[in-house]
Design a protein that fits this description.
The protein is mostly beta strands. Helices cover 4% and strands 56% of the residues. Strands 1, 2, 3, 4, 5, 6, 7, 8 and 9 form a nine-stranded antiparallel beta sheet that branches. A hairpin with a 5-residue loop joins strand 7 and strand 8.
Length: 186
């Protein structure tokens, strides 16, 4: 006889469909540069849905991002990132994340899912924090979330690099991705 464990939803999060508000949602990334500093940037989240089930295990998430919107504060670097050396936005015009499971770990939640970047799909685990709900001045019920994951860019076919004269490489392999999400109850 097997037993299925179900985890209650966080207080304030109700069942139903929540649409990610792209204008109030941000995806950022950080990667080591020349081994001594970090480059930070953003990529636009264009759409997404959080379907909240009766319990945590019955909840799912799907998100689409647009790599052609990459912004690091430097137009030349952004152009290089959009090129075939990195994101190849002409060939790979969107990134996606589709959850395969949600679980509670201590005081946080972990969303497991398939992340597709540059045509490569890998399973990742996003450490996620539910920040609560609020009704905005327009009567919309909103939920806020923060999530993060560290990936290897090489796992996604992003292998361009340049050797440094003193040793090492220009672009680090580990990339931290952070999401700040606002979703509206449909």
């Amino acid at each position: 006889m097997s037993t299925t464990t179900t985890t209650a939803l966080p207080t304030g999060l109700t069942t139903g469909t929540w649409t990610i508000d792209a204008s109030h949602t941000e995806a950022t990334f950080t990667v080591r540069h020349a081994g001594i500093s970090k480059v930070r940037g953003t990529v636009a989240v264009t759409e997404g849905t959080i379907t909240v089930g009766e319990n945590l295990e019955a909840t799912s998430v799907s998100v689409t991002l647009d790599p052609s919107t990459v912004s690091t504060g430097d137009a030349n670097r952004d152009g290089h990132l959009k090129s075939g050396d990195f994101f190849d936005v002409e060939k790979f015009g969107q990134w996606t994340f589709v959850s395969t499971g949600v679980r509670e770990e201590g005081k946080k939640h972990v969303i497991v899912g398939d992340l597709t970047i540059h045509g490569e799909t890998r399973s990742v685990e996003l450490d996620t924090e539910f920040n609560g709900t609020a009704v905005d001045p327009f009567g919309n019920t909103r939920a806020g979330f923060e999530a993060s994951v560290v990936i290897s860019r090489k796992d996604f076919g992003l292998t361009w690099n340049a050797a440094l004269e003193a040793g090492g490489v220009l672009v680090g392999d580990k990339v931290t991705i952070a999401l700040d999400v606002s979703a509206i109850k449909s």
